């Protein structure tokens, strides 16, 4: 193919809609997302990228994707970089998603952590892609159910996500009826309160639960400001969107911040192939040689 033909292909609209969306636009956005978040977009996601970002163009009053791409990379568009990332990242979650992880946490891990806490040791857990909060609150509820006076000890859950808006929503701890259905009724009645917002009937996580969780914005391929190590890390259904070398990097970085007998819970479609880990259950890993 000649250079001129290649250029014409890149200028051809690959998604028809209100705004022409070319291969060049897609490549530009995909490169930005990969370099700044680690997320790899394949060509099959072109329509999704268009539909989500067309809303941003309308909101900003920008008439085409060429101008939008230039704006995102300009000094004036720094805030829009976050908006674009937020629009393109997926926040699919629910309480007690992949229940076997929480059963394992309660039955296999919590007794050891409770003993350590009662001996005056600090216990740290990390929900590394917390989305709207269902995962870290599920961890907290599991802890409270297994280890009721946890607030007396030095036990904390860190919950992080790249999406600042979803982190703010998670921090509020307010959910609709359908969202809390997976929570056992007794636990829901004990650790959540009923409230109304207009016509909506909602559930709010009680302060005793929320006080265990600290929410922060964090990019997994960026710097990690945390100090110390973690006894439990949940990072599920996230690195599947990364290229293999980025996945391996994330796994190695997790290993560096895990205590010797920590557990790492990953998504049902994910596997860890880097040295130094061994299986501790279905999509559950520990550092090789740990008890």
List key phrases describing it.
three-stranded antiparallel sheet, Rossmann fold, Chemotaxis Receptor Methyltransferase Cher, domain 1, disordered N terminus, alpha/beta
Description:
The chain has 291 residues and is α/β, with parallel strands linked by helices. The chain folds into 2 domains: 3-88, Chemotaxis receptor methyltransferase CheR, N-terminal domain (Chemotaxis Receptor Methyltransferase Cher, domain 1); 99-287, 3-Layer(aba) Sandwich (Rossmann fold). The protein contains 12 helices and 12 strands. The strands form 3 sheets. It has a 7-stranded mixed sheet. A 3-stranded antiparallel sheet has the order 5-7-6. A two-stranded antiparallel sheet has the order 1-2. Strand 3 (123-127), helix 7 and strand 4 form a beta-alpha-beta unit. The protein is globular, with a radius of gyration of 22 Å. Residues 1-6 have low confidence and may be disordered.
SSE arrangement:
Blueprint: H1 3-11, E1 13-15, E2 21-22, H2 23-37, H3 46-60, H4 65-72, H5 78-88, H6 99-118, E3 123-127, H7 134-146, E4 155-161, H8 164-172, E5 174-176, H9 177-180, H10 185-191, E6 192-197, E7 200-205, H11 207-210, E8 213-217, E9 230-235, H12 244-256, E10 258-266, E11 277-281, E12 284-287
Parallel strand pairs: 3-4, 3-9, 4-8, 9-10
Antiparallel strand pairs: 1-2, 5-7, 6-7, 10-12, 11-12
Helix pairs in contact: 3-5, 6-7
């Amino acid at each position: 193919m000649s250079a001129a033909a290649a250029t014409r292909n890149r200028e051809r609209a690959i998604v028809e809609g209100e705004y022409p969306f070319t291969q060049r636009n897609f490549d530009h956005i995909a490169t930005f997302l990969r370099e700044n978040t680690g997320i790899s977009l394949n060509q099959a996601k072109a329509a999704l990228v268009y539909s989500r970002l067309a809303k941003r163009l309308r909101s900003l009053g920008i008439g085409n994707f060429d101008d939008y791409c230039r704006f995102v990379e300009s000094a004036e568009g720094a805030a829009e970089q976050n908006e674009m990332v937020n629009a393109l990242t997926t926040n699919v979650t629910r309480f007690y998603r992949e229940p076997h992880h929480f059963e394992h946490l309660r039955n296999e891990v919590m007794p050891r952590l409770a003993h350590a806490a009662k001996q005056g040791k600090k216990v740290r857990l990390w929900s590394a892609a917390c989305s709207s909060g269902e995962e870290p609150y599920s961890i907290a509820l599991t802890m409270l159910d297994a280890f009721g006076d946890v607030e007396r000890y030095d036990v904390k859950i860190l919950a992080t996500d790249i999406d600042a808006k979803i982190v703010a929503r998670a921090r509020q701890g307010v959910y609709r009826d359908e969202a809390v259905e997976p929570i056992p009724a007794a636990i829901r009645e004990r650790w959540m309160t009923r409230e109304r917002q207009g016509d909506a009937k909602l559930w709010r996580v009680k302060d005793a639960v929320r006080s265990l969780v600290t929410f922060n914005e964090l990019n997994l391929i960026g710097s990690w400001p945390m100090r110390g190590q973690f006894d439990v890390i949940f990072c599920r259904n996230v690195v599947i969107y990364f290229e293999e070398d980025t996945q391996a990097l994330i796994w190695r970085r997790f290993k560096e911040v895990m205590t010797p007998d920590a557990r790492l819970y990953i998504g049902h479609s994910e596997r860890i192939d880097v040295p130094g880990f061994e299986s501790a259950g279905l999509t559950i890993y520990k550092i090789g040689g740990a008890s």
